[in-house]
Structure formats: structure tokens, C-alpha cells
Amino acid sequence: MTVADLIEKLRAFPGDARVVVPGYELGMDDIEEPVEVKIQVDTYDQLWNGPHVIARKGKGGVRAVLLADKRNGARARRK
To answer: Are the C-beta atoms of 43 and 51 separated by less than 8 Å?
Structure first.
């Protein structure tokens, strides 16, 4: 999904609706802010992992926008 695709889908929701992501085990976390990252795609094929990982600095990767909570947003900015 691209940013343009996401924007189009979000137009169907009220502007004051909260945007959340699944919590670590239970509950939901608020989005802190979108973070631009570079990812390595199709890195994992295990069902319990997401297929993509944040690329290490200087290792290339594909531009992506991470809708991160506080925990994941801070980790993404350090890489």
C-alpha cells in the first residue's frame, strides 16, 4: 500500500477518529507520528514475523512510512 492509497482509504473515516495500532500483547497503542524509514522487503518468511525489517543506515532499502507508537517510533529513529 502506498501513502496515496492509505490517504484514499482514510477519507472514509471521521477526521476526529483516533488512529491506533495493536499493542505488544493486548490492547491498542496510539500512533505517535508517521516516521519515514527505509526497509528491507521480504526479509522474513516465518508466520510470526512481519516480512519486512528496518534497513540499517547506509544499507539501502525501500522508502516507507511507519505508523509508529512511542516504542517503535523511537526505535526506528535510532536505526
So the answer is: yes
pTM value?
0.69
Query: Residue ranges per domain, the chain?
Result: 3-78
Q: Which three cell numbers stand for residue 40?
A: 528491507
Written as tens digits, the pLDDT of the chain (79 aa) is 899 999 999 999 999 999 888 777 788 888 888 888 899 888 877 777 788 888 888 778 899 998 877 776 656 665 5
Q: Encode burial over 50-79: b for 16+ CB neighbours within 10 A, e otherwise.
A: eebbbbeeeeebeebebebbeebbeebeee
Under DSSP, the state recorded for 55 is P
H or E, element range at 74: helix 70-78
Between CA 30 and CA 20 the distance in angstroms is 5
